[in-house]
Amino acid sequence: MFILTTEHLTRRFKDLTAVDDLTISVEEGEIFGLLGPNGAGKSTAIKMITTLLPPTSGRVSVGGFDLAHDANKIRRLIGYVPQILSADGTLTARENLTVFASLYDIPRKERSKRIDESLALMELTEASDKLVKNYSGGMIRRLEIAQSMLHRPKVLFLDEPTIGLDPVGRKAVWDHIQKLRDNFGTTIFLTTHYMEEADKLCSRVAIMHLGKLAVVGVPADLKMSLQLDNATLEDVFTHYTGGALDRGDSYREARATRRTAKRLG
Amino acid sequence: MPTNKLKTAFSSVGCFFSKTLSIAAMDVRKLRHDPAELITRAVQPALWLLVFGEVFARVHIIPTGNLSYLSFMAPGILAQSVLFIAIFFGITVIWERDLGIIHKFLVSPTPREALVLGKALSAGVRALSQVVIIYVLAVLIGVGINWNPINLTLVAVVAVIASAAFSTFSLIIASVVKTRERFMGIGQILTMPLFFASNAIYPLSMMPSWLQAVAQVNPLTYTVDALRGLMIVGGTSVYGVGLDMLVLFVSMTALIIIGAKLYPKVIV
Question: What is the pTM of this model?
Answer without folding.
Answer: 0.88
